[in-house]
Amino acid sequence: MAEAHPVGFQWVMEAKARGAKVIHVDPRFTRTSAMADQFVPLRAGSDIAFLGGIVNYVLQNELDFREYVVAYTNAATIVTDGYRDTEDLGGLFSGFDPETNTYDPESWQYAGHEQNGAERQDHARQRETAAALQHETHGMSVKGETERDETLQHPNCVYQILKRHFARYTPEMVETVCGVSQDAFAEVCQAWTTNSGRERTTALVYSVGWTQHSVGVQYIRTGAILQLLLGNMGRPGGGIMALRGHASIQGSTDIPTLFNLLPGYLPMPDAEKHPSLEKWIDAVRHPGSKGFWANAGAYGVNLLKAYWGASATVENDFRYDYLPRINGDHGTYRTVLDMIDGKVKGYFLLGQNPAVGSAHGRAQRLGMANLDWLVVRDLFEIESATFWKNSPEIETGEIVPEECRTEVFLMPAASHVEKEGTFTQTQRMLQWREKAVEPPGDCRSDLWFFYHLGRMVKQRLAESTDERDRPILDLTWDYPVGGERGDEPSAEAVLKEINGYEVATGRPLSLFTEMKDDGSTLGGCWIYTGVFADGVNQAARRKPGREQSWVAPEWGWAWPANRRILYNRASADPDGKPWSERKAYVWWDQAKGEWTGEDIPDFPKTTPPSYRPDPGTSGVEGLAGDDPFIMQGDGKGSLFVPVGLIDGPLPTHYEPAESPVRNPLYPQQASPTRMVYRRPENPLNPSPPEHDTDLFPYVFTTSRLTEHHTAGGMSRTVEHLAELQPSMFFEVSPELAAERGLKHMKWGHVVTARAAVEGRIFVTDRLTPLRIDGRIVHQVWLPYHWGSNGFVTGDSANDLFGIVLDPNVLIQESKVGTCDVRPGRRPTGRALAEYIAGLGRAAGQHQAASVTAPAPATDPAASKPDEEPT
Amino acid sequence: MGVREFIKGWPVYRQLTGTDPLGRGAAAKSSHSEQLTARTSTADSVARSVCPYCAVGCGQKVFVSGGKVAQIEGDPDSPISRGRLCPKGSASKNLVTSPLRQTTVKYRRPYGTEWEDLELGTAMEMIADRVLATRSATWQDADDKGRPLRRTMGIASLGGATLDNEENYLIKKLFTAMGAIQIENQARI
C-alpha cells in the first residue's frame, strides 16, 4: 500500500499513531513492511491457506462475534442434505463434472431452495460469461426465506460446515503451505481476533494483485468470511478495502466497458437465457428474493430508455431487442486468441497498453499484428501502437513490418487536465474534475472521439432501411457541444443522463427509488442516480475536509446515495443500538422513528429494528429490521455462497496453475474449474504431480514501484519518474543468488515456457527463502513497468506469464508462476526465438508425456481431476 | 550598510533573537528568496482536479498561466489526501507537458515501415468507414438455433479505467448500439 497507494497509506500511519497494530503479509519486504509492526513473508499463491488458517483459529476457539454472526450472517442457515465438502471428496465439492470441469451446484443450495429443470444453473455457461462479476453489487440471488438453526448446532448449518471445511487449516498446515512460522502465524491470529468484536474493529486491505490468481475471487471470499465472523463488516474501521489501481477503474466497472455487463451491473443479455425483457429482468430481480434488486425492472427500463429515448416504449419492450447478445466467453484474453486466429478485424485501445500490461505480451502483440485495423488513443506512442516497428517479435522475426497488414491509427488523447468529467475512486466516490487548459494540437477527449464517431456513423447510415441499423439510428445522441473549438460534447449533459431524469419535465432524479418501469423516467446507470440530485453536480462538491464531519459527506459523491460505508446497518446491534459508543456510526432513533447517524443509513429509512415481514414477502418489504445485507437475497452476509460462484461455495486452497509444490492439503492440485486455453502459443510450465518440475523450480511474482504506473505509458514517458527508476531489474535472495551464480547489479534473466526477460539482478534480503513442505522454495520478484518505448526502456515482466484465468471473472493468473533464473543477458534476435521455443518445447514435451502417463499424473483442467472423488 | 544592519543580516542573529531558533524558517530566509513569488500565486486560474494515476483519488490544484499548465499541487482541502501527492502525482505536470506527448495523428498503412502524418478529420472519416465495413462483413443476425444475436464479433475494444465515467458511458452506449460486444477494460486484467 505504501508503494502503490502512498497517499492512502497516510491513514494507516494515522491509525498507527493512535495505537493501531499494522501487519503486512506479502511475498516481499516493501515500503509497507518497513512501517508495519509485523511483516509476514509468505509464498505467493498461498493466501487461502493463510487466511483459512485464521478462520480455523477463530472457529476452533469460538472467537467469532457470536451475536453478530447469528443475526447478520448465514451461519445459521441450513444447507441441503446432498452437500459434500472438499473434506469428503479429496478437494472437490459435490456436483463436479470431469467432462466439463464445472460443477452442478444443486447440492450447494440452502435446504428447501433446491432447483429443478430449467431453473438449474449451467456453470459451464456461467464460466464462459463471467457471470459472477454481476455480483459486485448483486449479492446472491437466493430466495429470502431460509431454514435456520440459531443455536448453530445443526450438522448442516453453515457454521458447522465452515468448521469442518477449515478444520485441516491448522497452524502446522499453514507453516507447510505458506512457509509462515507457527509463532508468526499465532501473532497474526491473536492480533486480528483481539482487535475485533463489540468495541474494536480490524480493517483488511488488499491490492488488486489479489484478483490476479486462478482462485482470486476465493482469496477475497476468505477475507470476507473472516471479517464477517469477527463482526468487522459495515462498521467504521472495519471492512475489506480493495485498493484499485487506476484513477477510474471503479467507474469503468460501474459504467462498464466490460463484455458481460451493462451500466449498474445489469447483465448483457444472453442469447439463450434472456430471450425477452421479462426473462432478462427476472434474472436480475430473482422473484422471491429480498432487498433492492426487486426493483430491477425499473433499472433495466431506465437504461433502455436512456439509450433509445422516444423510440423505446412499453409496446416494444423499450427496445430490448436492440441489445446485442452474448453467448460465451468474449473476454479480453479469448478475444486476443481470436485475433491470432484472424476472427477479429478491428481493435480500439483506449488508454490501455496490453503489449506491456496484459499477461502473455507475445500473444497480445501477435494478435495485434493480425488485425485489419487498430485505433490507439493515448497520450504517448505506447508499445501497443508500435508492435509493428520495435516489438520483441520484430527482433525474433515473428513480425515482419513488410508482411504485417495491420493499419494503425495513433490518435492523440486529451489529458486529465484538458477535459472535464468524473473519476470514481476506489471507495466508490465520484469526483468531478474541472478543465484547466485546452488539449494541444489534435489531442481530443474520448468523449469527443466517441461522440463524433457516433455522429459520423449515424450520418452514414441515415438512409439505411436495414433493420440491423435501427439501434444506431434510434440511439439518442443529441448531446450539446461547445468549448473553445465549438465541438466538445458536454460531459455534464452526459452525467445528467447517467443520473437520470423525468422524461416529461427533465427534472433530475434524486435517488434510484424514483425510477419507474413505465418509461416516464430514464437513467443510464441506476446506482449513480443522485449524483445530479436537485440539478446540482454533486460530484463537484469541494467543502474542505476540515470544515465538516470526519465522514466528509460533502466532498464529492459516493454511490449509492452518497453512502460512504456499505451495509452500515451492521454497525448497530439487532435492536438498532450501536455495538459500542466508540464504534457508533448508524443507529435507530426511536423518537424520530428513523435510522440516523454519521453516514446515510444503508437501510430502508423508517423500517424499525423490530420489523418482521409476513411470510412470503419479498423485495424491500421482505427485509427484516435486522437484515443488514440489503443486496443479498436473504439479507445476510454470506459465509457460505450457494449461488453465483463457479469454483465452490467455500474457499479452498488449490495450488497456482504453475507451482513447484504438490498441494499439501488435498489430492486436487490446482483449481479444477480454472479457465485454461490449450494452444501452442500458450504453453504452461509443468507442475506436480507432473514430472520434471525442476525445469522451472522457482516461484515468481510481480508488483509495482512507487515511481511507475502499471504498463509505464504514464511514467516511462515522464522525465522525473523515468529518472527515479531508470531500468528493469529483479530481486532475488542472497541464497538464491548463491544457488544460481547471480551477482548483484549484474545482468540476469528470468525464463518461463513463454519468454525470457532480462534485467539487473538485485540481491536482497527483501526476499526470504521459505521452507515449504519440507524443502526450501525461492521466490523471485519483478516490477512490470518496462517496454520498448519512453525515456527508459527494458523487458516486460508480463511476457513471462501464460494465460490461465479465474473461472468466476475471467481474470488472469499473473501474480504467481514458476520460472528459472539464469545469470547473464538473454539471447537476442533469432537466437532468442530458438531459446524460448526450446523452453516451450521442454515444457510442452513434458506435458504431452504426462497426459499419456497413468493416473494420477494428469492435469485436471485438461482431462479430469487428479484423483477420482471417493 | 552599518554594523547593526550587517549583524541583523546574519541568519544566526535572527535565529537567536527571533521566533525561529532552529533556523528552519524566517531566520534562514535571504532577501533574494523573500523577493521570489511562487508560480502558484501569479497563476491566471486554478482548476480543481483529481490525480490521474492510482484510484486513491487525491485532490489536485492545476495552476494555469498564459493558457499553459504552470504547476500542479495537492489540494489541501481534500479529505482524502489533505494536500499530499505521491511521486507520480507530484510529477503530473511533467506528464501533461512531457516532450514525448503525441499531439498529431500518426498513421501506419498496411505493410508500412514508418509512421505517416494524417489530418484529424481524415483519420476520423477513415475510422468511421472501417468500423462500418467491418461491422457489415462480420455481422451475426442469429445463432444456429435462430436465436437473435444482433452483433459483430469483428470489432473489439480495450480500455476505460483511465477515462472518465462520461466517456465510458458513451463508449458502451455506442458500441452496444453498433452490436460490438467484445468491449473490455483493465477491470478484467
Largest protein-protein interface: A-B, 164 and 114 residues
Helical fraction of chain B equals 25-40%
CA-based shape of chain B: elongated
Q: Helix- and strand-based class of chain B?
A: alpha+beta
Largest sheet composition of chain A: 6 strands, mixed
Q: Which regions of chain B have little confidence, pLDDT < 50, spanning 5+ residues?
A: none
**Into which percent range does the helicity of residues of chain A fall?**
10-25%
Radius of gyration of chain B: 28 Å
CATH topology of one domain in chain A: Barwin-like endoglucanases
Give a structural overview.
The complex is a heterodimer of chains A (870) and B (189). Chain A has 870 residues and is α/β, with parallel strands linked by helices. Chain A has a domain at 675-852: Barwin-like endoglucanases (Beta Barrel). In chain A, 24% of the residues lie in helices and 13% in strands. In chain A, helix 3 (47-60) packs antiparallel against helix 8 (171-178), helix 3 (47-60) runs parallel beside helix 10 (216-229) and helix 14 crosses helix 16. Chain A is globular and about 75 Å long. Chain B is α+β, with helices and mostly antiparallel strands. Chain B has three domains: 3-35, no CATH class; 39-96, Single Sheet (N-terminal domain of TfIIb), CATH 2.20.25; 106-188, no CATH class. In chain B, the strands form three sheets. In chain B, strands 1-2-3 form a three-stranded antiparallel beta sheet. Chain B has a three-stranded mixed beta sheet with strand order 6-7-8. The longest helix of chain B is centred in the C-terminal third of the chain and has 18 residues, at 120-137. The mean pLDDT of chain B is 95. Classes of the chains: A alpha/beta (870), B alpha+beta (189). At the A-B interface, helix 11, helix 14, strand 9, strand 10 and strand 11 of A face strand 1, strand 2, strand 3, helix 4 and helix 5 of B. Strand 9 of chain A pairs parallel with strand 7 (148-159) of chain B.
